[in-house]
Amino acid sequence: MNQTKIRSRSQFIGAIFLLLFFAVVYRFYTLQVVEASWYQERAQQMYERERVLKAERGSIYDRNKNVLAKEVKAYTVVAILDKEAPNHVKDPESTAEQLAPLLDMPQEQLFQLLNQPDRRQVELRPGGWKVDQDVAEAIRDLELEGITFVEETKRYYPNHTFASHVLGYVDLDGEARMGLELELDEHLRGEEGLVRFQQDRKGNRLIASAETVEHPQDGYDVYLTIDERIQLYVEQALDEVYREYRPEKMMVIVSDPHTGQILAMSNRPSFDPNHYSSITNYWNDTIANAFEPGSTFKVVTFAAAIEEGLYNSNETFQSGSYRVPGQTIRDHNRTGWGNITFLEGMQKSSNVASVILGYERMKKEVFYHYIDRFGFGKLTGIDLPGETPGYIRPLEAARPAEIATMTFGQGLTVTPIQQIQAINVIANGGKLMKPYVIDSIYDPNTDKVAVQNKPEVVDPEVISPQTAQQMRDILETVVTRGTGTNFYIDGYQVAGKTGTAQKPKQDGTGYVDGKYIHSFVGFAPKDDPKLSVFVAIDSPQVEQYYQGGAAVAKVFKAVMQNSLQYLNVTREAEEVTIEEAEADWATVKDYRGFPVNEGREQGKRDGFDVHILGEGGEITEQKPAPGTSVLKGTRLYLLAGELRHFATPDMTGWSLKEVQDWAHVTGVQLHVLGHGYVTAQSVSPGERLRPGSELSVTLEPN
């Protein structure tokens, strides 16, 4: 081998070693510099571990700190299927058979879950997902091989269907879905924490390693204005009436008229948020369901007329019908009651009275001004999700007939929350208050109140205090001698207004035959209102439409009476009689002992419509009783001695109270169907009756 070849090979080998050297240097450089952070991160991931620290979702309470929603322990049932595991399911068929009734799942479905050879373990969903402790204990008692539990938490609503559309619900995945749970989710859910630590390759935690902890921030607690007791009265009344009448929907709101606080709110159909899969109606109808109010809207028309100086309680008008361009407006009894006062017009819920006051005498701009001031056609701003504003036809687009019908609650839509807000204007002396259900929000992490709501005045004087007082007096007479007699509560001065509205077709082509929404909005006690209540029942199953008002009365009276007693509002039985708020009222004298002719003449001079019953020569009994305040022109029954026979009067147009007075004096056994005014009677006028005879009357509402 010559020297040249030797030198060439040496240079070649040297070059190879030089390349290898530079390759090693380059690799060392990339490991130490270029990829160092990546390898450090991988190593950290291999040896470091994190564990999430769950935040506890905040609870929801009523105004008296009673729990309405809270977190509780729950247990998910897990089956170990890995045959290498010492404790695994060895008999899937027997295990499925024993678990099926406890998890409310078909045995076949459980058997399929337990027979999955490619799975090491499986959660027995849906029945075994977050079961209650009692179910978990029952399963433990079975001592089934391969069955274990994962402890978790879930949302629990101890009162079940109680105010469910207000509260909403959180599903088993922990996601808020509706109601306040969704609206306040950001406050309620809190923030998760984190703990970091190191472990060896076998997964054992290193004792000497550093640990970093980010503590969770628990969710805020929410306190509502809802009163659990009053809400309970509402739920009980709704359940009872719902079972009896099977309506399509029911809505109730109870509020404090002075503050706008909502004390109770509920709907039917309802649902149990613990079993939310049963929900059929996701809308809170008390704030989202807008419908034609019917005669309850006359409160706005009359209040506006009084405020504008257009109303005189003693002034008379011809009831029955009223012609406006394009339409004839009629009273609900079609023929009216003859020439009556405007006060009687409100008591009898005359459409004609409302049209004269709100359409004939009032400029349409002024009428619309009061609709707006009472809060209709816009959101109330209540702190609940899903509120709708209803619909008021634009002023420039409203035809005369449409404005005329709006005066008695047709051709516009309003929500229950708007109606309770409007009646509160009458009850509290003229102020429009913003309704609200959230009293405060408390941060348990800082022990501080994060949000504290206060009553908010939207409009300080929609109407004057004097107008509000006059309206309260008028609305009380609706209950004591008008269409609202079914809503009279012994011992309490109740004021309010009835409403019956036909349900419009969804295509807007008219109204649905036989479908009505019956409602009542009122407050008590009349002179110092503590509560206002709105009740609406959509399409109750009754033989005659007017019988739906009785269902509304059952709910209203149960809720109002129980709630007033719970609030220790003293009965004022001696003050329930009508005060002399109007100039044509009179106190009934004692006519007993008067000769018949003298009693008749004295009664007439006192301004009453006198009816003598009996064949004696001296007045022995009378109705109304002495000392009662009544309107002049009221029927006064004077009984003279024994009553053997008497002629049946024509009772068409009589109120329930007038019929009851007559039945009391004559001793007739009275049977009443419906409410409002008499439209039919079982015994023809003029036919002779005896005390103890039976008489049925049918009344129709406004």
From TrEMBL:
Give me the segments passing through the membrane: 12-29
Matches recorded under Pfam families: PASTA, PBP_dimer, Transpeptidase
Localization annotation = Membrane
Pathway membership: Cell wall biogenesis; peptidoglycan biosynthesis
| Record-linked InterPro entries | Beta-lactam/transpept, Beta-lactam/transpept-like, PASTA_dom, PBP_dimer, PBP_dimer_sf, PCN-bd_Tpept
Q: What class of enzyme is it?
A: hydrolase
Q: Where is this region: Disordered?
A: 683-702
Question: Per the record, what are the reactions this protein catalyses?
Answer: Preferential cleavage: (Ac)2-L-Lys-D-Ala-|-D-Ala. Also transpeptidation of peptidyl-alanyl moieties that are N-acyl substituents of D-alanine
Give EC number(s), comma-separated. 3.4.16.4
Annotated PASTA domain residues:
582-641, 642-701
Q: Which domain of life is it from?
A: Bacteria
Q: Which UniProt keywords apply?
A: Membrane, Transmembrane, Transmembrane helix
Q: Quick one: where is this thing mainly located?
A: membrane
Q: Which family does it belong to?
A: Belongs to the transpeptidase family.
Per its UniProt record, what PANTHER family does this chain match? PENICILLIN-BINDING PROTEIN 2B, PEPTIDOGLYCAN D,D-TRANSPEPTIDASE
The name this protein carries in UniProt is: serine-type D-Ala-D-Ala carboxypeptidase
Q: Which organism is it from?
A: Caldalkalibacillus uzonensis
Give the lineage: Bacteria, Bacillati, Bacillota, Bacilli, Bacillales
